[in-house]
Amino acid sequence: MPGEILVVGGGLIGSSIAWRLARKGAQVTIADAGNLGGEASSAGAGMLSPGAEFDKPSVWRDLGFESLLLYPSFVEELQAETGIDTDFRMFYPDDGIVDPAALLRALHCACESRKVRIMREHVTSVEPRDYAGVVIAAGAWSGQVRVNSMTLPAVTPIKGHLIGFQMGPGALGPVRRHGETYVLQRSSGFLIAGSNEQDVGFDRTVDAAICEDIHRRASRLFAPLEHATPVKRWIGFRPRLVEGDGPRIGRVEGTNVWLAYGHYRNGILLTPVTAQRIADEIESS
Ligand SMILES: Cc1cc2nc3c(=O)[nH]c(=O)nc-3n(C[C@H](O)[C@H](O)[C@H](O)COP(=O)(O)OP(=O)(O)OC[C@H]3O[C@@H](n4cnc5c(N)ncnc54)[C@H](O)[C@@H]3O)c2cc1C
Asked: Is pLDDT above 90 for 93?
């Protein structure tokens, strides 16, 4: 693939696209405003549950199942390249978990060893003529990037809280979930309880009352939490498109610009399918 591909955003979506492109021999640069994926991708819980998330036919559901099928080979290839274990586990055929922070570490490591250039840069505008291709994958900030005279689909940050407990490894077993409330456990024993949704812009405050409410709800799903003390509380911004159903994954017609954002509650699940689609489209363009 001749020419440089610029990927704006180094979260799970941008980094996985960069990795897939680099594997195809492309020359890739990631520009990330922060500490490479320190936003939604490392904040997320890591449930891979299209069955539990979507009870009616939808674009989300189709993409979710397609992506879950790709997960085993995706993490296996990453682990083979990097030696990093992403704590990917399947409890039931359509229900798994992964540690998104470990997945992100593995992707960055794989990108580095495949000579992807990584720039710390807040991109405010891009001139697509300067590149063979441009991918916008800046999560909840994607709509703020100016690309020529295009109007990109707008995104809203949907804030979510999570709390974490240190428990004995294996204490929980499979993910437990009821409505908005869920608990899951990493192999290390770290147990995560979530969540909530707030449409309040980029407010980074961790609200103690919301964390207490999550703690109460989670204790109903897993009684040992009732007397446990959270060791960590944090928030993240899910990127939700203002209009339309499903994320934007594909080319802006008639241009060399691809959009890969708006994954909302399921960007960790949808990472493999997004990376595969965008990288294949760019390769065949
Ligand atoms: C509380 C919570 C729980 C979640 N749980 C799950 C779950 O269990 N399962 C699941 O599948 N999904 C889950 N999600 C959703 C998932 O985390 C997101 O959909 C996904 O991480 C989005 O990835 P991304 O790469 O698009 O965005 P991000 O991870 O937000 O990455 C965007 C990147 O772009 C960079 N950036 C921003 N602006 C610019 C700019 N102007 N120039 C350059 N770089 C820029 C940022 O620094 C960041 O690194 C959860 C999210 C939250 C908040």
From this structure: no
